[in-house]
UniProtKB/TrEMBL annotation:
Family: Belongs to the aldehyde dehydrogenase family.
Domain of life of the source: Eukaryota
Organism: Talaromyces rugulosus (Penicillium rugulosum)
Coiled coil: none
Name this polypeptide is given: Aldehyde dehydrogenase
Catalytic residues in the record: E263
Amino acid sequence: MALFQEIQTPVVKYNQPLGLFINNEFIKGIDGKTFETINPHDQNLIAAVHEATEKDVDLAVHAARAAFEGCWSTVTPSERGKMLTKLADLMMRDIQILAASISLDCGKVFSAAMLEISSSADCIRYYGGWADKIVGQTIDTDAASLTYTRHEPLGVCGQIIPWNLPIYQAVCKVGPAVATGNTVVLKSSEIAPLCVLYMAQLVKDAGFPPGVINVISGFGKVAGAVMAGHMDIDKISFTGSLATGRQILRDAANSNLKKVTLELGGKSPNIIFPDANLEHVMSWVNLGAFFNQGQVCCAGSRVLVHEAIYDRFLDMLKKCTEINKIGDPFDPSTFQGPQISQTQFNRVMDYIEAGKKAGATVIAGGNRVGSEGLYIQPTIFTDVHDDMTIVKDEIFGPVCTVHKFKDESEAIRVANNTHYGLAAAVHTSNLNTAIQVSNSIKAGTIWVNSFGLVSPQMPFGGYKQSGFGREMGSYALEAYTQTCWNAGKA
Ligand code: NAD
């Protein structure tokens, strides 16, 4: 099978790498296996991608270990920073290709994919800036001693990412790992391999030595599981579902007790108080619930509305979603594209049917768009109660439930009534309400009068079963280093 394939998208024609990226080269898998990746818009085959199996994971880990102990340890922090900055520049140079490969492979609306790439370049640039600013402390213990701390890299970091924000997830992990002097084996999702492979090509052009950043494509239960249980991987950073997170933790515990950070699912509440500017709120609720077809870990899938504005709010939200244009991700007027795969489509439709059967009322959507394809109407449920699966489970599709509350304490109780704790939002013009409610919600991120805004400077991660550890910001640097102290007497 080919290692490269010319791909024509509606915006750009480019040469797509398809191999495993190990030691700065695209190569075939040792077992010669490939798997197909499908365009969710028309469900046509895009390409056959080389699949990593156990021996390929070993090869990638070996390359990363050799680089860590060899050339990479001699590269100065400032040189590491320059390479990351160069990578960010190259991503911006090829922004159209990277964005088009996401839209083609994942069905993401092209403008959203462009935003993902520019945000990802910002993230890489941010960590490039950190590379030469990682410092320890000197600590006064007694007059005759010199005591100081150092932050050392962990070694070889395994990074496993999902498909919904494939480049952003990749850079949130690669950036801090490499800035702090680690080497990386990154596995993309089996349903979104293309854009990550294209980014791998830029790694070589950015000047990273062979083996520092290795990128493999493959299945979770094969390559992913081998990584989680690998004896020579020092850390796994995982973003994905709760069930997989649990399995990875077990595999890490049963192998070399590698360090683990987990970024898992969410069921985020979006709380609207009566003093909020409803016109303003509407676009945040619409984005929160339906951006990227609802395939966002922090999606505002539970909308909590004060009883005084409930009827008016529902009317406005219904009208707002009815004008969301659904269709071809490359059409500039499209707001919502297809779900990424038949499996995800079926899963979301099953939840919608379960909601209807459980007695919830559908006030908008509730069906697929047309009679074929992977498109689902933005769906709003009311008359919901706590034990319905549509209220409890992360649906990961364009579906939200609307809950009525009478006062602040009820809003807080409902908001916290979930085993997830990734994010939340509070909409109010009262500063006291904003602060009190934000401080009472058990979630890693709380937005006020907005939704879904992220920045490389801000830590992101979950409370409860949304995972542990933080990505982004200076906090992520801690997750890729260990602190040691040295002391000596004169
Ligand atoms: P998933 O758990 O099915 O897969 C995620 C990754 O794990 C993929 O690369 C997959 O190949 C791999 N994998 C699967 N089984 C594995 C195993 N046994 N061992 C090792 N690796 C394995 O999740 P998904 O469907 O790709 O993504 C959707 C989920 O990701 C949602 O739950 C969403 O909330 C979550 N997510 C969380 C965040 C966050 O920052 N918290 C961000 C994006 C997505």
